[in-house]
Amino acid sequence: MSKKRQITFSLVRGALAILIALLVAMLLIFISAGGDTFGAKLAATGEALKQLLVGPLFRVNTNGVSFEGKRLADILAAMIPTTFTGLAVCIMFSANQFNLGAEGGIMLGAFVSGIVAIYVPMPPVIHAVAAVLIGGIAVGLVMLIPALLKVKLDVSEMVCSLMLNYIIMYFIKYLMNAYYADKSKGQIQTYPFLNSSRIAPLGSSPIFNSAKLTVGFVIALIAVVVCGLFMYRSRWGYQIRMIGINQDFAKYSGMKVGFIIVISQLIGGFLSGAGGGIEMLGRYPTFSWSALPGYGWTGITIAILAGNNPLFVPLAAFFMAYLQKGCDMMATYANVPMQLIDIVQGVIFLFFAAEQFLSKYRQKLVVKTAQEEIAAKAALAQEGGNANG
Fold it and tell me: Is 27 within a domain?
């Protein structure tokens, strides 16, 4: 199948999965909507859908529709951590390594960066950069655990990384309770980060400040470009993708499969850890996470939506952030449970993971491409025969 048709198929498949998920959401909204009559339930469903689909960017009232810059800034700010976890999952999944450690990784990266931001004074800018890098490196090293166990002992990286998330969470909770918590506060949190470690807002606008949209957004976009170039313009990126397509072929062609698998996990861990550090130092005054933040799970959905292509991650992250904002608006203005987003994510995941979803359409595209190639070769052969005659 040609590259153009493959992209078309991916877009159609993704759009249809999202549409089905939204239809399921609409049905659930109708069931949970208030009202004693069918008409009342329908009106409540329409109001909820308006908040879900339009509310994240526009204020709709009796005076008309008006664009809300603050809401857009909220969506862009929410994209920052999930962009990093989406990139991390893309690289690990591209090597056919179903590592689920981005969830614990982003929490560990946030914690380590926060500790550096409190106890290791440095000049401004350098402090933030060093804290984020140290957080990313720490998580990269931790991700070596499932990677090496996979390579050396053939331990399932999925199970190992999933359990590692909870080990990380409880280990951080132990450290917080025993050593790093500010006992003068009413909740478990660290002492405040030093001002030199803070990541600056994206601009001086009050909208950016209130939404806590930081320079981390630009860093996330740069990371997308770097990861795209790495995956599609570098030898290591090619080897990662080849191992994901056919590990046996990669092995017999001379690639160091074990080493490349470890590298993919290391890079994925670094990205998730750096994303946690940027999120923590840009949006929080202290470290106070007491549970896994959920960014890693969202990153899995984003990677699936992006087809493991880093360049598509921002679009998928924007969609997920938009959906989250829409569910917040529904919960606030239409009395719809926020848990609806988990159902929508699950349906999207289900259809993207289903190998046979739109398989007949894909087969038709493959056959059509093959027929066009055969016809083109026949035409060239006929022109060559006419020229010789």
Answer: no
In a domain, residue 333? The reply is: no
- CATH number for the domain that contains residue 79: 1.10.3470
pLDDT in tens, 91-122: 999 998 889 999 999 999 999 999 999 999 99
Residue 292 phi, psi dihedral angles, 5° rounding: -60, 135
Q: Based on the structure, what is the number of domains in the chain?
A: 1
Run of H or E including 134: helix 126-142
pLDDT digits (tens, 9 = 90+) for 167-204: 999 999 999 999 999 988 888 999 999 999 999 998 88
Segments forming the whole domain that contains residue 186: 66-309
Is 48 domain-assigned?
A: no
C-alpha atoms less than 13 angstroms from C-alpha of 106 in its C-beta half-sphere = 30
Single out the residue of 366, 312, 345, 297 nearest to residue 17, CA to CA. Answer: 345
Q: Does residue 381 lie within any of the structural domains?
A: no
Task: From residue 313, give the alpha-carbon distance in Å to each of 31, 89, 106, 304.
Answer: 33, 10, 17, 9
Q: Which tens digit of pLDDT belongs to each residue from 221-231? A: 999 999 999 99
| Rounded Cα gap, residues 52 and 192, in angstroms | 36
- Token match 């933030």: residue? 128
